[in-house]
Amino acid sequence: MNDLTIRQNIQNAMQFEPSLDAAHIGVAVDKGIVTLSGHVNSYAEKLMAERIAKRVIGVKGLAQELEVEYASDKKTADDQIAKRVINILEWDTTIPTGTVLVKVEKGFVTLTGSVSWNYQKVAAQKAIEKLSGVRGINNMITIMTSEKIDDVKKRIEDALTRDAEVEAKNIKVTFSDGSVSLEGRVHTFHERDLVENAAWSAPSVRTVNNHLIIS
């Protein structure tokens, strides 16, 4: 698939998404590498534009250069954003109380601390993605688990085999001291993300190194 077709498919997909105002989003494609530029009205829209681009067939890489620009009357002070983030995290039963620390600077939220599972790290970010005033999120939460499982590699491989959207035969999984490495080839960004999510779902996993190539 050529770059022009990929670009047009991304633009069509964005225009088809009712929750995204794509009027000020620029899309450039060079050898399958997509660059998104311009500005959007919220951080949630920025993430939506990225997800849409990654789902399009033929996309091999993504450079995210979109800026979040709030109207002057909708800007929120950093201390107010911080209070809202803390309240949201405290109400979320997925995230253990007191495990996540919050810092806000010029609308950019930094999350630190440690949790036992990656899904808890992901949940912390998703809980605040749609919060007004947020311009970006730097998720630096670490995964700290004391659980030791001997068959982590097999559990991940079995999970990939069960998934109808993943060609498990093209993927090599290695595991050592809490770190998973993924190598091989997948067809789309979506499949790449599915494989990484499967790796994160196994116990004892603290880091995932995703070296999968899209082809």
Describe the structure.
With 215 residues, the protein is an alpha/beta fold. It folds into three domains: 3-68, Histidine-containing Protein, Chain: A (2-Layer Sandwich); 72-143, Fe-S cluster assembly (FSCA) (GMP Synthetase, Chain A, domain 3), CATH 3.30.300.130; 152-214, GMP Synthetase, Chain A, domain 3, CATH 3.30.300. It has helices spanning 3-16, 43-55, 78-91, 118-126, 152-162, 189-200, and strands at 25-30, 33-40, 61-64, 67-68, 100-105, 108-115, 136-139, 142-143, 171-176, 179-186, 207-210, 213-214. Strands 1, 2, 3 and 4 form a four-stranded mixed beta sheet that branches. The N and C termini lie close together (11 Å). The mean pLDDT is 91.
Layout of SSEs?
Blueprint: H1 3-16, E1 25-30, E2 33-40, H2 43-55, E3 61-64, E4 67-68, H3 78-91, E5 100-105, E6 108-115, H4 118-126, E7 136-139, E8 142-143, H5 152-162, E9 171-176, E10 179-186, H6 189-200, E11 207-210, E12 213-214
Parallel strand pairs: 2-3, 2-4, 6-7, 6-8, 10-11, 10-12
Antiparallel strand pairs: 1-2, 5-6, 9-10
Secondary-structure arrangement, i.e. CATH architecture of the largest domain: 2-Layer Sandwich
What is the fold-level CATH name, i.e. the topology of the largest domain? GMP Synthetase, Chain A, domain 3
Shape: flat
Radius of gyration: 19 Å
Q: Proportion of β residues?
A: 25-35%
The strand count comes to 12
How far is the first residue's CA from the last residue's CA?
Answer: 11 Å
